[in-house]
Design a protein that fits this description.
Helix content: 25-40%
Mean pLDDT: 91
Distance between the termini: 9 Å
Shape: elongated
Largest sheet: 5 strands, antiparallel
Radius of gyration: 23 Å
Number of strands: 13
Low-confidence stretches: 20-31
Structural class: alpha/beta
Number of helices: 11
Order of helices and strands: HHEEHEEEHEEHHEEEHHHHHEEE
Strand order of the largest sheet: 2-1-13-12-11
C-alpha cells in the first residue's frame, strides 16, 4: 500500500472504533462534520478515494461512496460470497476416480475427474489410490487418464496484463496438481496428466498393476464413480485464498462457482458473471471480469460493497465468511493493523489500493462494515 492510503486507513479505522451510533451522510459543508470526520476529509482532500463505513448497511461515514473504482484483490470477496451461498462453508469439493469396475476387481481405463479443488497434489492422489483399493480395485487393464473437460481451459480475462498468465496465475483447471506450477514456479499446462501419473505411481505402490501409461483427455460423461477424495471445507479454502490473496485459487474457485451454478463451460468470465448477478440481485451494480481482481477493468463502489457485506452478516454463512478474512497482523495484513480488531481483505494493482471488511466498534459493540478504495495515490 502507498503511504497516503495507509494514513487514511489508519484514520478511518481509528475513527470507526469510536463512531457514535448515528447515521452520517455526506454533508455539503465541512464545518457540519464532527472532528473525526473532518480529519479524514482533510487527509483525502481531492484524491481519487472512496470511503464508506456502515452498521448493518446504515452509513456512519461516507466519502464519494458511489464512485465506481477498480477493487484489485478486494474482488475476491465478490467470488467468496456467492460461493458460500451456493455451496455452504462446510461443503467439500470432490476429486473422483471413475470407470467400470468388473467383478474380478479390474478396471479398463480409469479417469481422474477434478471438481475444482485448487490444492490437489501427490497427497490426495495417494489417498485416492487407497480409496480405490478399499473399493476393490486390483488391476487397471487400460490406463489412468486425467480429465481436461470439466472446466474450460481458458487462461485470460479482460483487463489482464499480457504477463499475468506466466507471472501471476497458473492455468485454472478443474483437476489441479501442485497449484499447476513446477517447483521453480514455471506454470504448467498439463496438470491432468501429472495427476494421472501420480495416481499411477500411488496405485502401483499399493500393488495394483496399471498396464498403460498415464494420459489425459475428455472423460466420458456416463462413467460410474468408484472412489473419491474430498477437499478441505470451502471455508478453509477461502481462508487460505483470502488470507494470502491467492490469485490462482480464486480463479479455480471462480470456475467452481460457475460450474455449481450450472454454467457450461465453466470459464473465468462465467465465474465473474455469477458474482455480478449475485450482486445485482441485491441491488448492487458491479463490473466483473475475473474472480482474482487482477483485471483493471473490474469496478465496484464503496457503498455497494458495504451493502453486500451487510447482507452477508445476516446469512447462515456470514460468520464463516468473516472468519475467513485475515485479522490485523495476519496474511496480507502482516505487520499492519495488529492493534486493531479487524477482519479485512487487501487489494493492490498498479495505481490502486483497497481494503474492505469489518472493524469492531467498542462504542457500538458491533462489527462495522467498511470499504476504502483509491486510485493513483502518490507515495
Amino acid at each position: 500500500m502507498r503511504r497516503t492510503f495507509r494514513t487514511v486507513v489508519a484514520a478511518a479505522l481509528g475513527a470507526a472504533l469510536l463512531l457514535p451510533g448515528l447515521s452520517l451522510g455526506a454533508p455539503s459543508a465541512a464545518a457540519a462534520l464532527p472532528a473525526w470526520a473532518s480529519s479524514i476529509e482533510k487527509l483525502i482532500g481531492t484524491k481519487s478515494m472512496s470511503v464508506a463505513v456502515g452498521d448493518g448497511g446504515t452509513f456512519l461515514y461516507r466519502h464519494d461512496p458511489a464512485a465506481a473504482r477498480p477493487p484489485a484483490s478486494v474482488q475476491k470477496l465478490l467470488m467468496a460470497m456467492p460461493l458460500l451461498a451456493a455451496l455452504g462453508p462446510s461443503a467439500t469439493i470432490p476429486t473422483d476416480a471413475a470407470g467400470n469396475l468388473r467383478s474380478d476387481g479390474s478396471v479398463g481405463n480409469l479417469w481422474v475427474i477434478g471438481g475444482g479443488d485448487p490444492r490437489t497434489g501427490p497427497g490426495p492422489m495417494r489417498a485416492l489410490a487407497q480409496a480405490l483399493v478399499d473399493a476393490g480395485v486390483t488391476k487397471v487393464t487400460g490406463r489412468i487418464l486425467g480429465d481436461t473437460a470439466t472446466f474450460s481451459r481458458d487462461w485470460w480475462a479482460i483487463g489482464w496484463k499480457t504477463n499475468f498468465p506466466d507471472d501471476e496465475i497458473a492455468l485454472p483447471t478443474a483437476l489441479t496438481f501442485r497449484r499447476n506450477r513446477l517447483s521453480n514456479g514455471t506454470p504448467i499446462t498439463d496438470p491432468e496428466l501429472r495427476a494421472a501419473g501420480a495416481l499411477t505411481i500411488a496405485l502401483e505402490n499399493l500393488g495394483v498393476d496399471v498396464v498403460g501409461a498415464p494420459s489425459s483427455g475428455s472423460a466420458p460423461t456416463d462413467l460410474p464413480v468408484i472412489a473419491s477424495v474430498q477437499s478441505r471445507p470451502v471455508s478453509s479454502l477461502l481462508a487460505k485464498i483470502l488470507g494470502l490473496s491467492d490469485n490462482f485459487g480464486a480463479e479455480v474457485l471462480g470456475k467452481t462457482l460457475a460450474f455449481a451454478s450450472g454454467i457450461r463451460p465453466a470459464t473465468i468470465s462465467a465465474g465473474a458473471g455469477v458474482a455480478k448477478t449475485y450482486a445485482a440481485d441485491l441491488g448492487v451494480t458491479v463490473s466483473a471480469y475475473d474472480s482474482s481482481g487482477l483485471s483493471s477493468s473490474n469496478r465496484l463502489t464503496a457503498a455497494g460493497l458495504v451493502a453486500l457485506l451487510a447482507d452477508a452478516e445476516m446469512q447462515p454463512w456470514g460468520l464463516a465468511f468473516q472468519d475467513a478474512l485475515p485479522m490485523g497482523g495476519e496474511g496480507t495484513l502482516a505487520n499492519r493493523l495488529s492493534d486493531v480488531r479487524v477482519h479485512a481483505k487487501t487489494g493492490t494493482i498498479d495505481g490502486v489500493s483497497a481494503l474492505a471488511g469489518w472493524v469492531w466498534s467498542s462504542t457500538n459493540g458491533t462489527w462495522l462494515e467498511f470499504v476504502i478504495l483509491s486510485q493513483g495515490l502518490a507515495k
